[in-house]
């Protein structure tokens, strides 16, 4: 493949970060400044300490996204597709469940005894 075409297909990056990741960093800085200077009800040292951590959450998310091949929106869309899928079953015994019976090994006196019939719906609804 021609290297010029390869560069056309990649996302725009500044300093190894995409524009969305830079937006996360700027958002983190704005949150840190807003929390530390205007919203924090604590003293100066606690406000500074908490502003670094609160503002660092979006920055850390941007850094992790640049280091790993993880797409949050794609992950959330896959979770929503899975949740809406037909493979998600409702709780309960269902109409086609047959169940099984545990019986004691036959002895000479009980060799003619049959396995008891189980009503799965009654077992499921009993508390």
TrEMBL record:
Protein name: PrgI family protein
Entry's transmembrane regions: 21-38, 44-65
Source species: Conexibacter stalactiti
UniProt KW keywords: Membrane, Transmembrane, Transmembrane helix
UniProt KW Membrane keyword: yes
């Amino acid at each position: 493949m021609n290297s010029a075409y390869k560069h056309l297909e990649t996302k725009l990056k500044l300093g190894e970060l995409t524009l969305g990741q830079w937006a996360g960093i700027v958002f983190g800085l704005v949150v840190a400044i807003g929390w530390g200077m205007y919203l924090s009800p604590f003293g100066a040292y606690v406000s500074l300490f908490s502003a670094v951590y609160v503002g660092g959450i979006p920055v850390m998310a941007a850094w992790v996204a640049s280091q790993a091949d993880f797409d949050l929106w794609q992950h959330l869309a896959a979770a929503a597709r899975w949740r809406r899928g037909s493979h998600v079953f409702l709780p309960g015994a269902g109409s086609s469940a047959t169940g099984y019976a545990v019986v004691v090994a036959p002895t000479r006196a009980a060799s003619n005894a049959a396995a008891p019939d189980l009503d799965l719906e009654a077992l499921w609804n009993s508390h």
